[in-house]
Amino acid sequence: MGKRKSSKINNIRTFALSLLFIGFIIMYGGVFFREHKTIMTIFMLVGFLVIIGSTVVYFWIGMLSTKTVQVTCPGCGRTTKMLGRVDICMYCNEPLTLDQSLEGKEFNEQYNSKRKTQSQSQSK
Ligand SMILES: [Zn+2]
Fold first, then answer.
1. Helices marked H in the chain
2. 81-91: pLDDT as tens digits
3. CA of 89 to the centre of ligand 1 (A)
4. pTM of the predicted protein model
5. Which of 14, 22, 66, 79 has a C-alpha 20 to 30 A away from that of 41?
């Protein structure tokens, strides 16, 4: 994936969308093997599985969305959803944080993973 920073939900959404396209391209590729039923079936099956995968990712976004926090972005004033303790505004890519101690610090995905390992052991 690109280095450009974007909000996590947007990243996952882009990923799901590209999976959907890849699935369709694979299925379309099967049309070129009409003569060989086995190869065509394999193409169709793989393409279908990739599309299913993309649907699963969309469901996952839905699950994640329930865990997001709505905040008003200080950069553009719009209401954006953030995931985890550190995220980036969906509209203007302004780094956001819920943790006062991290405020003003440069955006770093590491803050999330550290927190995640701690909170996971508590929730399970
Ligand atoms: Zn913003």
1. 8-30, 37-65, 110-123
2. 888 888 898 88
3. 5
4. 0.66
5. 14
